[in-house]
Structure formats: structure tokens, C-alpha cells
Amino acid sequence: DRDVENKFGQATCLNNMAELYLKNHQPQKALNHASQSLEIAKSYQGLSEMSVSYNLLSRVKEQLGDYRAALQLTKEEMKINDSILNKETASTILELESKYQLERKEQAIQLQQLQLAQRDLEFKNQEIEMAWQKRIRNLSLILVLLLSVLIFWLIRSLVYRKALNNRLDKQRHDILIKNEELAQLNEELQTQQHQIIIQNEVLVKQNLKIEEVNATFHESVRYAEYIQQAVLPPKQRLNAIIPDHFVLYLPKDIVGGDFYWVHQIKNKLFVAVGDCTGHGVPGGFLSMLGLAFLKEIVTMQQVYQSNIILGKLRNQIIDSLQQTNDLLEYVDGIDMSLLIIDKESQTLDYAGARGKILLASDGNVELLKGDRTSVGFNPRMKSFTNEVRPLIPDQVFYLFTDGFVDQYNEQDEKYGMQRFTDLCKCNHSKPMPVQKEHFFQTFTQWKGSFEQIDDATVLAFKL
User: Fold this and answer.
1) With 0-12 CB in 10 A as exposed, 13-18 as middle and 19+ as buried, what is 221?
2) Does residue 329 form part of some domain?
């Protein structure tokens, strides 16, 4: 019926698309289309389409290097092909056997008729021979009787043959009608196949156009990455200002929304880590904007107090992005931790905008929390606060964004602040290169095959 025809067309189309993706070395897409085709073919027992789907799945698994699965799928294909062959063979044998049995029955009937007639004749001849003298008068009656029997069987045979011929004519007529229906169905399938070929050509052209757009986009993103890397502090400058440090910078995409900044003016050391709204290209633009404003406030305006710096940065972000109450759904901001160390007075000045900092020394870890508002527009904005405290010798400072802490693993568990605190506590006495490798391996092993959900940055240093 029409539902089976539609499913057949869908299965054929999906198999053709899977073949195309396989030739274009896109095995995952080929796997998805071939699997969908197999499910559709199973729904109406389309053995030919199931065989093609198993063949495609076997080739995809082989391309992916899963040879065991490829072998199993090949076996399934062979089973389907055997089923097709057995079905056709059984049909042919049944038809031949039916014809053979019919002919044997006809021959058996004729043989029985001949045997019966022969027996009757022999019996009558014997009676005639034994009682010729006595039954001469009945000879005419016997001959009439024999002729009547013979005529009866002849008429019966003719009637049977006529009925058989009528049945055969009806079967021939039915076969002709079926052949015409099959021819019409074949024409419809050829039309559908032609349409599928046209659609495949359109898909190929669209795929080429998409690849061109993707190439242009990736080239632009790579250049944006180059610009962002140029804006971040270079390694030589970091080594000159804070020799004992490490930076773990893991953007979710090519361009990230996290940034870090290190600057020194006379006896004051400025260290900041920021996390802009979103990630990718939008986050990258906002991070470069935040870095530019931060440098201007410290170097040009000469503001050296952490909470005032965050306040001025917020004002410039609001003015630049034109943030108002009318555009709350588009409000972007920056979560930031800012640390100012005065080497002369041996004090640290800390302010945070939804940012945190860990201080580790002698096996102890302390968490400093900032204000619970971002650098950006907020209807209930308040002035940022700061905390000033004396420096502790050999103290290790950890500035970080929430991408590390909020990362989920394959069991849908969040890494969490407690694990991160324990990680800093167990590693703060180790050399910085060893710490960086340990932090990286911890993040990678925790994430596993789960997608990275956000940019992750950790900046640690020891004075």
C-alpha cells in the first residue's frame, strides 16, 4: 500500500544519503542515516533495504576502526540475503511442486479410468467366453452398457479438463493484472529515484557551500584568537613580574571569554582574572574590551585601590555597551577577581565581582569572596568593597574562573568548590610547573568525554 511505498522511499533516500556521507568521510552522519533506514525497513520487512543498510553500517564501522562490529553487521547482511534467496527459492519450488502434483493427479485419474475400463472389459470377455451360448441375447445390452460407461467417463473427463482450463485462464489473467501493477509501481519508483538523485545533488551543492562558509568562519575565528592572545600578557612579561607562577588557560571554543592581567607599577603588583558573559567570539570581544578598560584605569587614571578600580570598570562597561533598564535581557558583564599587592607595606588589597581567590600556606587554605554582583549593569547596583590584610611569607595565590569548578563529568556530577579547594591544598607546596600539569590532568580526567561547558582559567603565583 501507499504507507509501505512511502517507507520504502524513505529507507532508500536515507541509504543514499548514508552512502554519500560515507564517501565524503563523514562516518558519524553515515551511521545515523543508515541506522534510521534500517529501523524504517524493519517496520515493513523490506529485506532488500535492510541488506543495503547493514552493508552501509558495516562499512561505516570498518571506517571507524570497529572491525568487530563491522564483522557482526556483515553477518546480519548475509542472513538477510539468505532470507531473500530462500524466499524466492521456496516460492519457485512450491509453484513447480503444485504443477507436478496436479499433473500426477490427472495421470492417476486417467490411469485408474483405463484400469477400471480394462478390468470391466476383461470381466465381460470372460463372461462372454464362458457363457456365450447362454447370454448371446444379452450381448446388445452389455455393449450398450459398456458404451454408456465409456461415454460417461469421457464426458466427465471433458468437463474436468474444461474446468481446469478455466482456472488456468483465470490465473493467467490475474498474473497479467499483477504484471501491469508491478510495471506501474516500477515507473513510480524510477520517478522517486530520479527525484532522490536530484535532491542528493542539491544536498551536495549545499554541503559544499556550507564547507566554504565554515572555512571562512574558522579563518576569522583563528584570527580573533591571534588578536586575543596578543592582548593577553606575554609569557616573557609574566616571568619578569612573577617568576614563580603558572597559567592554565582552557577556552571552551577557539576564542574564550576568560582573560587574565598582570601589571606592576613601582612597588605595586596588579593581578586580575576575569570571566565575561558567554564564551566563544562574543565572550572574546568582551574580554578584550575589559582588558583595555582595566589597563586605562590603572595606567592612565592611576587608580590603585581594588574596589574603586572595579567601580570605574563597571561604569565604562555600562557606558560602552549602553546598558539600561530597557535592555535587561541583553545585559552582559564580567565576573572578576582583582588583587593588588604592595611589596613596600607588605599588604594585599582584594576586591571581587562574583569572583573568588584562594590563599594557601603551610597546608592551610583560605577562601576570599568578593561582592555578589558582576561588573555590569544591575538595577540594584552598590559600590564594590575591598579587603586589605598583611602578606604571609611563602603564600600561594590562586585566582580562577568558575569554568573549572562548574565542570560536569560523565556521571553528571559537578566538580565543585570543595574539590578545587582540596586540589589547591594538596599541591600548593609543589613547583609551579608540576602544579600546572596536575591541575590540567585533574580537569581532563574529570571531564572525560563530557563536553566542556565553559571557559576555564587558573592563575597561581608565589612571591
Assistant:
1) middle
2) yes
Determine the Cα–Cα distance for residues 420 and 174; give it in Å rounded to an integer: 80
Q: Global pTM?
A: 0.55
Instruction: For residue 442, give the H/E element and its range.
Output: helix 432-447
> How far apart are alpha carbons 34 and 69 in whole angstroms?
14
316 contact partners, CB below 8 Å, separation of at least 6: 293, 296, 297
Strand order in the sheet with 396-400: 245-250, 456-462, 396-400, 356-361, 364-369
Amino acid identity for residue 124 in this structure: K
* CATH number of the domain that residue 399 is part of: 3.60.40.10
Same domain, 128 and 35: yes
User: Whole domain around residue 444: which residue ranges?
Assistant: 233-462
What are the residues facing 388 on neighbouring strands?
Answer: 349
Which three-class secondary structure state does DSSP give residue 199? helix
In a domain, 70, yes or no: yes
Backbone angles phi, psi at 385, to 5 degrees: -110, 160
| Torsion sign over Cα 374, 379, 384, 385 | negative
How far apart CA 339 and CA 387 sit, in angstroms, is 10
pLDDT in tens, 36-86: 988 988 888 888 888 998 999 989 998 899 899 889 989 988 998 888 887
- Tens digits of residue pLDDT in 101-136: 676 677 667 777 777 777 777 777 778 878 887 888
CA torsion through residues 305, 311, 312, 317, sign: positive
Number of folded domains that form the chain: 2
CB atoms near residue 78 (< 10 Å): 12
- C-alpha 166 chain-centroid distance: 60
Please state, in angstroms and rounded to a whole number, the distance separating the CA atoms of residues 242 and 144: 135
Place of cell 509501505: 4
How far apart are the two ends of the chain, measured CA to CA in Å? Answer: 81
Q: Is residue 227 part of a domain?
A: no
Nine-digit cell string for 208: 559544499
Rounded CA-CA distance 54/43 in Å is 15
Angle of CA points 158, 163, 164, to nearest 5°: 95
Please choose, from the candidates 307, 251, 235, 263, the residue with its C-alpha nearest in 3D space to the C-alpha of residue 458.
251
The last residue of one of the domains, among 173, 208, 243, is 208
Q: Determine whether 415 is exposed, middle or buried from the number of CB atoms within 10 Å of its CB (0-12, 13-18, 19+).
A: buried
Cα–Cα distance list, 349 to 55, 212, 356, 366, 391 (Å): 68, 51, 13, 15, 10
Task: Please tell me the distance from the alpha carbon of residue 181 to that of residue 20, in angstroms, as a whole number.
Answer: 32
Q: Quickly tell me which residue has 612579561 as its cell.
A: 237
